[in-house]
Known about the structure:
This protein is α/β, with parallel strands linked by helices.
Amino acid sequence: MSAAQLSDFEIVAREDLSPATFLLEVRHPMMAKAARAGQFVIVMSHAEGERIPLTIADFDRARGTVTLVIQAVGKTTREMQQSCTVGGTLYGLVGPMGVPSPIGQARKVVCVGGGLGVAPIFPQARGFKEAGAYVIAVLGFRSKDLVFWEDKFRACCDELILCTDDGSAGIKGLVTEGIRQAIEKHPDIDEVVAIGPPVMMKGCAEATRPHGIRTIVSLNPIMVDGTGMCGGCRVKIGDEVKFACVDGPDFDGHLVDFDDLMTRLRRYRSEEQAALERWSEQCRLMAAADQKEQPAPAQAKR
């Protein structure tokens, strides 16, 4: 594991993928050189900011950049959506952390991404392809308007199965339908890798279980320090307790206790909502103060 000290890291590109999802490309040559598929970083947007874990969605060793795709759902991520612009900086960017995904063994693999999980599954799909595997991507979105990176996946995958909840793009249905179609067409699949919401990854594991297909999922429990010291990210894997930050984030999907994971993710929901409401009210008051300070428009001379 390599770790960079806290500093200011320049945001060199930003793309808004949907009203709630945005991409930041951040300059960090040492991290870009060290990063591997499946790893994550700890981010602080400013000196008093919350530490949040984000999976590395892409890295460019030549440009010396890492790419993060963020969904604005809580106080910190909504604050970042407002404040993180090209030319600005992130106060802290520590990593890469976690165990890199093992790539290179499977001859035929299905890479499944659901919603925001589409971003971090990309470097794995690319890595498998570079290792010589036949790669099938299964991507799931709620609707056509939320689809992103379709071209990037088509460029590095042998097949792409696009799924939308409402059928506005690709096939209508969940990613489990895409997995079913892939298995039906390719009975020799060696491995399935899935990243997305816990309920989605649980569905993927259940879809592959009857076929005995190795299924790897990337877990996202509550995390504070990212070094295994706080114990907040512990997860149940079979009869063992693991720490996602140092033992993962990748685990055998057929052994993960997803119900326990989802219960733990809901533990601080009331505190998170209270923090979001306080921040939203502060933003409203600041906007009202700014509007009050604006000079009155000059009256036209008669």
